[in-house]
Amino acid sequence: MRILLVDDDFEAISNIRGIMSRCGHSCVALRTGAGLLAELRRETFDLLLLDWNLPDISGLDLLRSIRSMPMAIGIIMLTNRSGEEDIARALHAGADDYIVKPESESIIVARVSAALRRTVPAQPLARLTRFGPYEFDRLTEVVRIDGETVPLSAKEYALALLFFENAHRAMSRGYILEALWHSVADLPTRTLDMHVSRVRSKLRLRPENGYRIVALSGYGYRMECFPIESAA
Question: Structural domain of residue 163, as residue ranges?
Answer without folding.
Answer: 128-225
